[in-house]
Design a protein that fits this description.
Number of strands of chain B: 17
Low-confidence stretches of chain A: none
Mean pLDDT of chain A: 94
Oligomer: heterodimer
Helix content of chain A: 40-55%
Strand order of the largest sheet of chain A: 3-4-5-6-7-8-9-10
Number of helices of chain B: 16
Number of strands of chain A: 10
Low-confidence stretches of chain B: 1-23
Strand order of the largest sheet of chain B: 1-16-13-12-17-7-6
Strand content of chain A: 15-25%
Helix content of chain B: 40-55%
Order of helices and strands of chain A: EEHEHEHHEHHEHEHEHEHEHH
CATH architecture of one domain in chain A: Alpha-Beta Barrel
Distance between the termini of chain A: 34 Å
CATH superfamily of one domain in chain A: Aldolase class I
CATH topology of one domain in chain A: TIM Barrel
Radius of gyration of chain A: 17 Å
Largest sheet of chain B: 7 strands, mixed
Distance between the termini of chain B: 21 Å
Shape of chain A: globular
Structural class of chain B: alpha/beta
Structural class of chain A: alpha/beta
């Protein structure tokens, strides 16, 4: 059941109920330049993406490949911190109505204070968090009530190795979408999807979960986006976005998005 | 040279065993069922690692308690590693510092350090779990060599991740790993040392979730690693107990001293004394150039509670929660965190934590070489350096865990002393 705050459905939940497939874009906040964050988000909204994951950079992003690690390292060199990110985003809801999530590792959030972090997110209008190294059991035991208090949806991951029992458990405790990691890998692999992934996509689809699934990891172009969203509700592109930003700067993001969703 | 040691906690006060829900007593200094030591430990891992760590968590104690496992483990420790390692009464060192000093000679283990106790255990574990490929991280290269060694012994594929900087400063160990048939992959990210090598190994495990076992080299990482590694290393304190009984008529020394990077030799040396309040536990960390210089690896003094490599523990970090790059002349102590067991020993006051600078460690290494004819690894030299600062009673029995030999560090010693 969706949690409803002030009689308003969370933007993520609303988006998931709309027709059509969702392209979700991940980028590292503070990259290429410290103050690019807001411009990137505004550009993405204009060119028709469905959801945005703002990456909070971390020194040791162990589920990420070299592209996102390098962008995180650069963002930290540029001076990005949680405090600065919140400051950059303070007026974001004046110009942007897309669902916004923050994706980050747990330690920076823990140091900020989980409750303080969630409170800031609510003030700004962040809709959800993805924290890859915050395990489900710790979340449920310690942090769920805080997330609920501030109207935040926490997104959990599943992988091809996740057992059906655990997938059903994660489905039960989720109230947005399930982040479906496409293959056993860190982010940024680019091999395309083969029979193994397709069988996995079909297997998950057949479970008829209550939460829609959005596929991430290994999606880099129109072809992989279509493969990933044949059965799933949407797909997330991260490393390929960072590579595009590195090569072409922030002004040409619309070209990248157009190539994917036409 | 600073003559005041930096002691981060009061003298240890032992605490009694406490009852678990099931009514059994267990040590409050060992991991509970969820891998917590007090508030530290746990398994803060991405979902991608859940099946692997869960498989291990469900099986590790059962496997370790199987008679066939125990038999093979014990036999390899005896015939291959060369255990038991001697407990040596260091006569000249004792005279110099007016206290009874015993050295636990882990430097005499095959491959030159205690690390092999754990790699033997874990490769047998990997075999039981049906794994065919082994990965490891290494700092000084000792754990990498110990892993490459057991992989050669068991005929398993071996990939060792090592920071680019460590590869440069530990060239002999890199050569040894290659000679043993392992692939050494440089970690090029971040500080290019142990923490980054660990990140790369974790990424490899994410990419290879089915056939691969990750042999973590210290009492760090997600549950069950800290507990499993501590159990494999606990043979050190098990031997100290009966050896001391033979030599001194009592099982418990007054103090056990060990250097702590991640903390595996220390965990092994303390293990059977954790619940003996009369045994003082002394942990020696690397102060590097000095605690306040920004070039240090003294986690108890500089760390705050946080999450690193899947474990909640004390770690060195910025106020924004970015993990900082530690420094020590010793590659094996150059880690920004500390195992959750040690974080708990520190905050509970059970352990006494002392930080030792590069200079003091090097001086102690030379001193032990010339007094006892033993060249210690620079890691272990940190433990000896406390003798200059920490006063003991004349009749105290102090066991120092001599975790490794200094062959790998000769170049660093030569450069430092211009020998």
């Amino acid at each position: 059941m969706p949690i409803v705050y002030r009689n308003k459905m969370n933007r993520i939940q609303k988006k998931l109920q709309e027709e059509g497939k969702i392209l979700s874009i991940y980028f590292t906040a503070g990259y290429p330049a410290l103050n690019d964050t807001v411009k990137i988000i505004e550009n993405l909204e204009k060119c028709g993406v469905g959801m945005i994951e703002i990456g909070l950079p971390f020194s040791d992003p162990l589920a990420d490949g070299p592209t996102i690690q390098a962008s995180s390292t650069q963002a930290l060199k540029n001076g990005m911190t949680s405090e600065i990110l919140f400051d950059q985003l303070k007026a974001i809801r004046k110009t942007v109505s897309l669902p916004l999530l923050i994706m980050g590792y747990f330690n920076p959030i823990y140091q900020f204070g989980v409750e303080a972090f969630c409170k800031k997110c609510q003030e700004i209008g962040i809709d959800g968090l993805i924290i890859p190294d915050l395990p489900v059991d710790v979340y449920l035991d310690t942090y769920q009530s805080i997330f609920h208090k501030y109207g935040l949806i926490n997104i959990f991951l599943i992988t091809p190795q996740t057992s059906e029992e655990r997938i059903r458990f994660i489905d039960k405790v989720s109230n947005g979408f399930i982040y479906m990691v496409s293959s056993a890998s860190v982010t940024g692999t680019k091999e395309g999807f083969g029979a193994t992934q397709e069988a996995y996509f079909e297997r998950i689809h057949a479970l008829a979960l209550k939460n829609p699934q959005i596929v991430g990891f290994g999606i880099s172009n129109a072809e992989t986006f279509q493969q990933a969203t044949k059965l799933a509700k949407g797909a997330i592109i991260g490393s390929a976005v960072i590579k595009h930003l590195t090569a072409h700067g922030i002004e040409k993001l619309d070209q990248f998005v157009q190539e994917i969703i036409g | 040279m600073e003559k005041e040691p930096i002691t981060s906690s009061a003298h240890p006060k032992g605490r009694p065993l406490f009852k678990t829900k099931k009514g059994q007593t267990r040590s409050q200094y060992q991991a509970d069922e969820r891998g917590y030591y007090g508030e530290f430990g746990g398994a803060f891992i991405p979902e991608m690692l859940y099946p692997n760590t869960e498989e291990l968590r469900q099986n590790y104690i059962t496997i370790m308690e199987e008679p066939s496992f125990k038999k093979e483990f014990d036999q390899l420790l005896r015939d291959y590693v060369g255990r038991p390692t001697p407990l040596y009464y260091a006569n000249r060192l004792s005279q110099k510092y007016k206290v009874k000093i015993y050295l636990k000679r882990e430097d005499l283990c095959h491959t030159g350090a205690h690390k092999v106790n754990n790699t033997i255990g874990q490769i047998l574990m990997a075999k039981k779990l049906g794994k065919t490929r082994i990965i490891a991280e290494t700092g000084a290269g000792q754990h990498g060599v110990a892993t490459a060694t057991v992989c050669a012994l068991m005929g398993m594929e071996c990939v060792v991740y090592m920071g680019e900087i460590d590869i440069a400063r530990q060239a002999p160990n890199v050569a040894r790993m290659k000679m043993l048939g392992a692939t050494v992959r440089p970690a090029l990210s971040g500080s290019k040392t142990l923490k980054d090598a660990t990140n790369e190994a974790i990424r490899d495990w994410i990419n290879n979730p089915v056939d691969t076992h990750y042999i973590i080299g210290s009492v760090v990482g997600p549950h069950p690693y800290p507990d499993m590694v501590a159990r494999f290393q606990s043979v050190i304190s098990e031997e100290i107990k009966w050896q001391l009984k033979e030599k001194e008529g009592r099982e418990n020394p007054d103090y056990v001293v060990a250097c702590v990077g991640g903390g595996s030799n220390a965990a092994g040396a303390y293990y059977h004394f954790l619940d003996q309040p009369e045994v003082g536990i002394i942990a020696v960390e690397a102060a590097g150039k000095g605690i306040d210089t920004g070039k240090s690896a003294a986690t108890s003094a500089l760390g705050k509670v946080g999450i690193i490599h899947g474990s909640k523990t004390l770690l060195m970090q910025t106020t924004d929660g970015q993990i900082t790059e530690p420094y020590s002349i010793s590659a094996g102590l150059d880690y920004p965190g500390v195992g959750p067991m040690h974080a708990h020993l520190f905050t509970s006051g059970r352990g006494e934590f002392i930080s030792i600078t590069d200079d003091d460690a090097m001086t102690a290494g030379l001193m032990v070489s010339q007094l006892e004819g033993i060249i210690p690894a620079i890691e272990s030299s940190h433990a000896f350096a406390i003798l200059e600062y920490r006063k003991f009673k004349k009749d105290d029995i102090v066991v120092i865990n001599l975790s490794g030999r200094g062959d790998k560090d000769l170049q660093t010693y030569i450069n430092y002393f211009k020998l």
